[in-house]
Automatic annotation (TrEMBL):
The keyword 4Fe-4S does not apply. InterPro entries: HTH_HxlR (IPR002577), WH-like_DNA-bd_sf (IPR036388), WH_DNA-bd_sf (IPR036390). This is Helix-turn-helix transcriptional regulator. It comes from the Bacteria. Residues 8-108 form the HTH hxlR-type domain. Pfam families: HxlR. It comes from Devosia sediminis. The keyword Transcription regulation applies. Gene3D superfamilies: Winged helix-like DNA-binding domain superfamily/Winged helix DNA-binding domain. GO terms for molecular function: DNA binding. Keywords: DNA-binding, Transcription, Transcription regulation.
Amino acid sequence: MSAATRLDPDLSQDILVVRPSKWTLVVVVQLRSGTMRFNELRRNMGGVPQKSLSQTLRELERDGFVTRTAYATIPPRVDYDLTALGRELLDLADQFHLFAQRNREAVVEARRQFDALDIRPA
């Protein structure tokens, strides 16, 4: 492989890593229907802590999956929406959901077998 086509290992690791939080895919799926305000997202997501939602939105914005538009109104208004990259991540979330549905029984059985072994860490 030539030097021109070889990536710096540190750079390739950083580019290819999406650091999903517990709420990442939930936020992306919630934004499927379009622009939403912070509190609207929070209400729709049920038990998400405000801090966790703020961090997740900030990470999604930083990585280019979400846009944040702030309006100078009283009270302040902030809207969130998916970017083209975010819509691609939404496709991945949909595929993950289908995978989970298809393989639910197999995972339940694997957990049952694992738990029956009663292996405890040393």
